[in-house]
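A further point concerns the way the authors explain their paired sequence and structure data. Nothing conveys this as quickly as seeing an actual entry. An entry of this sort, consisting of the sequence and the corresponding backbone structure tokens, reads as follows:
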Amino acid sequence: GDENGKDYHFISPQEFQQMIDRSEFVEWAEIYGHRYGTSRAVVEKVLEEGRDVILDIDGQGAKQMRDKKLPGALIFLLPPSLEELERRLSSRRTERKAAMEERLRKAKAEMAEAYWYDYLIVNDELEKAQEQLQAVILAEHCRRERMSEFLAEILTAK
């Protein structure tokens, strides 16, 4: 199962609401009756360490990040087909048929929103998808907006 402090940080519903009220999440969402959020403080700490942050979030969270105009790229991982997605979900054997059908319906609705993401990666072959993700990260590091300080230093050097 998920381990507190490793996979997630579990807090009470009251604490979660207080964090929402204090804008302490970069994004949060309610998914299948459970609330999930990404702590602004944790993200800022990782970024200050010079590391990249990759968030595994749903469409609700991605929309919040886009609406807040937070820096970064939104990447949507697509299944190779709806049939393959159904096969992958059913092979887990974690849900009843009705729950799986609901999950597939929601997944299809989310895929329809993939048009407003910055990048789309088809998760067909794991190695290929990893390479594409690494290419996106590299490209994002080279964006003019991220290199402007470096450029200014070169231009003002004697």
Observations:
- The beta strands are 25-31, 34-39, 75-78, 119-122.
- Residues 1-51 form a domain with the Guanylate Kinase phosphate binding domain fold (CATH 3.30.63.10).
